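Annotated sample (chain length 154).
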Amino acid sequence: MAKLLVADFDAFRAWEGKTLPTGDWLTVTQEMINDFAKATMDFQWIHVDVEKAKKQSPFKKPVAHGFLSLALLSKLLHDVLWVKSATMGVNYGLDKVRFPSPVVVDSRLRLICTIQKIENYGDTGLKIGWHCVVEIEESDKPACVADFISLMFA
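Output written by the structure step:
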């Protein structure tokens, strides 16, 4: 999928209320899960102990941290959208987050994202409300559904 290129904030505003192009699939590897466990110091066996997960987990494989699918939002958004005049973007917050389905190791995820609201923020910024659904390939339920807020500056 080609990245949506938007020239500036005026052109970006035309996307308010619209769904961005669907992102490419991203495979969640055991290495990613282990790295996330190290970064967050969450070493629960369901995530990092492959042999125990095979024997004791109902999923028969390790499962990614729910917060890993949430943390991927910035990367997944960056993969589908580039506002050329933006010089910086930062996370602002979340209004609602749910993890409807576990992500087993080697699952493939992609983003479906709708821009809910765009408003001015200070003299050179925008505050953007995104409705994000992180889909799992061949699953009826998504990995993550989140109302995500970010700031973008020119």
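Annotation: Residues 30-40 form the longest helix (11 residues).
Annotation: The domain at 4-153 is CATH 3.10.129.10 (Thiol Ester Dehydrase; Chain A).
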